[in-house]
Amino acid sequence: MSADASRLDAYWMPFTANRQFKQAPRLLTRADGMFFRDDKGREVLDGIAGLWCVNAGHNRPRIVQAIQNQAAELDFAPPFQMGHPKAFELADRLARLTPAGLNRIFFTNSGSESVETALKMAIAYHRVRGEGARTRLIGRERGYHGVNFGGISVGGMVANRKMFGSLLAGVDHIRHTHDAARNAFTVGQPAHGAEFADDLERLVALHDASTIAAVIVEPVAGSTGVLIPPQGYLQRLRDICDKHGILLIFDEVITGFGRTGQPFAAQTFGVTPDLMTVAKGLTNGCVPMGAVIAQQKIHDTFMTGPEHLIEFFHGYTYSAHPLACAAGLATLDTYAEDGLLTRAASMEAEFAQALLSLRDEPNVIDIRNIGLVGGIELKPLDGQPAKRAFDIFLDCWDQGLLIRTTGDTIALSPPLIIESGHIARIIDTLRAALRRAA
Ligand code: PXG
Ligand code: PLP
């Protein structure tokens, strides 16, 4: 496809600087393993697993075959009052990967839909139990929970919220966990900040626990700049939730499926939530799919009343879509065959060391890591926030490397199949770009 500007007009691109893009389009046309190809035939190293989702790398034969076969066998099956075998099989397989107790799976089509589903489930759960006053939802500053109204309401990114009116009522936020003064350049989990969880006690004192349904946090905040939970923080949040009967929701859309070194961050950090949202790596990014994974006790609470009646009035036309289920099953097979759900743990030290070698490059003010996630925070250009990082993103693209930036933080989340040579290439390219941008 040519870069003829008029042919690019009709597509209003998501989360994109549309005018900048259409002046100099970046078009991806093929992908395999660790690499994309662009429309000019250039090879581009994928430093971010597509968008934190292609955890097994691109074009995996098992997954491709499964999707092709499924399209020819059963293209669609209505998900309401009907089922198809692969939906049950995928749910059963997922329930074996998750922490004990988290074994009831509700399918959606994205992370954003998973978040809406989990928030509704939490409020309805309390109501079914006879605590209908528990409707308040608590998020966290600098949280990202997708783009639907519930998700931006509990989310904590001002740009995603300020344009969209009054949002959902009855939402509040605990403070974020970022503390550069005490924790800059920490390898892995920061030592300081477990006490930030006590901010939940402040909100309980303000609103009373009897009005609070749930707290939702990302175990590792990705989109807001790779914020690693301080040691002890998540456990403290769990304890406070337990004390007050508040459900704890982990949004594992990014951290799920091996990103932090275990199948789920709940396992990496040893803290089990009541509800977990996933998407992205569930199908290796190949077909849109998400899920909410609920504690059995939450599911069972709904299973009352006359048996012919629907227990939870919620669902999507494409919940458990056959193509997504086929892709999901083949993805779990691929993860298992290649040992990918724990590979980030064995690569973590090498990746961290490579990242930290950028410490003394120009304008680097912090480096953060866990598993195969890295964040490199830059000093913003005076009066032009986000510009320095975006310029480095463009430079890296020119040099054949795809990275992500959010504000002035560079985020790396490569496919979990990454080898040492790829790590070296990512770091060398970034180093050169940082020097050029100085
Ligand atoms: N929750 C979390 C924690 C996410 O990271 C979503 C929900 C929403 O998922 P969907 O599938 O509706 O996009 C996400 C998605 C970035 C970036 O650059 C991250 C996401 C999406 C877009 C960009 O970090 N994460
Ligand atoms: N809008 C209308 C008019 C619909 O009929 C439906 C579903 O039937 C939806 C929205 C929701 O679509 P989905 O189930 O794909 O989320």
Automatic annotation (TrEMBL):
Q: Which UniProt keywords apply?
A: Aminotransferase, Pyridoxal phosphate, Transferase
The record lists the membrane-crossing segments as none
Q: Which Gene3D superfamilies match?
A: Aspartate Aminotransferase, domain 1, Type I PLP-dependent aspartate aminotransferase-like (Major domain)
PROSITE patterns from the UniProt entry: AA_TRANSFER_CLASS_3
Give cofactor(s), names only: pyridoxal 5'-phosphate
Q: Does the keyword Transferase apply?
A: yes
Q: Which Pfam families match?
A: Aminotran_3 (PF00202)
Keyword check for Signal, yes or no: no
> Recorded GO terms, molecular function?
transaminase activity
- UniProt similarity note: Belongs to the class-III pyridoxal-phosphate-dependent aminotransferase family.
The protein's name is Aspartate aminotransferase family protein
Q: What is the organism field in this record?
A: Pelomonas cellulosilytica
